[in-house]
Amino acid sequence: MANILENCPAPAKINLFLHVTGRREDGYHLLQSVFHLIDLADTLSFRARDDGQITLTGGLPNVAFAHDLCVRAARLLREYTGTGQGADIVLQKRIPSGAGLGGGSSDAATTLMALNHLWHTGLSRQELAHLGVRLGADVPFFIFGETAFVEGIGEHMQAVPLAAGCFVVIFPRVAVSTAAIFGDQDLTRDAEHVRMRDFIEDTAGSIHSAMCFGRNDLQPVACKRFPEVARALEWLARFAPSRMSGSGSAVFAAVADAAQGQHIVRQCPSGWQAWCVAGLAQHPMWQMLAVSNR
């Protein structure tokens, strides 16, 4: 029986809007957002071990081994299921850290899904998502694996019908601390609740209409703290309406097609990174999880 899984994708996400509606007594913020997968992705490979050990190659140099989300995800699944297996994990990063694109959370989700399959632990999508929230508020979304209307701290999700679209994503090479943005005294935390039906009716399944729905409540704080984010938004807005993803620093705009997107990418100011990416209707590992549960 195969004990290796290679080139497993961990796609990034963008937030088409993000409203902060409150804060719980434990400090977690309550949100409403629409999360959309894009094909900018990290890649992970896994080899099962019989001795229960977890190893990682390619982790971020500024993150301790025990704190790496891939390692934490593997250990959490191992302990939750009681399996005696371990894994050698190889991570190839492409999604920048501190960009608001969910790279670390996506790596953790792919680790949970891949090892659930490789170790034959048989957890359902719902069970894996329940584990994932222990690792981070965005992890359950990547396990959910579809464009989603997200509420609570990120654990309540409903699938949203939306065209996949094409985007330009700009990373102004500024790493933003999510905790610092959410802790800023200028952050508004009282956004009026919207209904998923409002989003569906207002956008009619169009990505370009979705770019005009709501706002990102974290964006003004990030722009204040990191002027390069504001500059990136202003530059990209010359071509199409732009918005920051998550807590930043990456910004994005919907474009008509890949040709327009590549035209914009070629003009990106030096010192920034730019990609033309496609939206994804479904996580590339969706079917693997379905097979694991048969």
Explained architecture:
With 294 residues, the protein is of the alpha+beta class. The chain has 2 domains: 4-160 and 284-292, Ribosomal Protein S5, domain 2; 166-280, GHMP kinase, C-terminal domain (Alpha-Beta Plaits), CATH 3.30.70.890. The protein has helices at 69-81, 103-118, 125-132, 139-144, 178-183, 196-203, 207-210, 219-225, 227-236, 258-266, 286-292; strands at 4-23, 29-49, 54-57, 86-92, 148-152, 156-159, 166-171, 242-244, 251-255, 273-280. Strands 1, 2, 3, 4, 5, 6, 7, 8, 9 and 10 form a 10-stranded mixed beta sheet that branches. The mean pLDDT is 95.
Topology at a glance:
Layout: E1 4-23, E2 29-49, E3 54-57, H1 69-81, E4 86-92, H2 103-118, H3 125-132, H4 139-144, E5 148-152, E6 156-159, E7 166-171, H5 178-183, H6 196-203, H7 207-210, H8 219-225, H9 227-236, E8 242-244, E9 251-255, H10 258-266, E10 273-280, H11 286-292
Parallel strand pairs: 3-4
Antiparallel strand pairs: 1-2, 2-4, 2-5, 2-10, 5-6, 7-9, 7-10, 8-9
Helix pairs in contact: 1-2, 2-3, 2-11, 8-9
